[in-house]
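Re-running GLPGLI family protein to confirm reproducibility after the cluster update. Everything else is unchanged from the original entry.
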Amino acid sequence: MKRLALVLAILAGTVFSFGQDSTTTGYIRYKSIRDISDNEWMRRRPDMPTEVTQQWELYFTPESSDCTFKPEEEEDEFNTGGMRMRMMRWEPKDVYHIDFATQFFQHYTEFMTKPFLITDTLNMDGWKLTGKQGIVLGYPCIEARTTKYDTVNILAWFTPRIRLKTGPQEYVGFPGAVLYVDYDDGRYVITAEAIAMGKTRPEDEDAPEIPDNGEEVTREEYEQIVIEKTAEMRRMYGR
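Result of re-run:
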């Protein structure tokens, strides 16, 4: 922990040295790709798409940030059995909100139709810096790594050029905005597609609100609920 604190202190100096032209207000559009090729039903239908793509948008200011699902204008179409089919899109109701003054993170979501409000503080607990660096959309990035469930590897690339602990979905708390995430060796990938520094939310568009009907849980409690309910469903259906 002391080593991580020292590295982060060094990063803070790095931000100052090459981040003079950065601001703390802007917009990032992300694209997420989920590999569903190992889904049992999908394996029986080789003509079906093997990926689910979604867009997410993030608005941030020095005070707060909000990340929400961005509906796409066009729907996915594919051929099956000589017929042209249109895939029904599932639109997540997730809302991710950060209050930078309190370092407080909220995530509203639904699991098996039940609403949850996940609360946490901004931190890098469990993450380690790998020493690797790269460029995403022209922004210098630093790689961090963690492991979940003992076997799932997660990589996150964050840029100290955008000096806020924000990012897509729950990938927040780093000393800079997260621009790229690789979950479980490519099974789920989130990539920043566009960054517009200084851009603010349109005046005719309301900021997303966190619904107040969700059961309040911590991130650890929510993940345990998902594990238990998923195992229960598999037992019920013999999988």
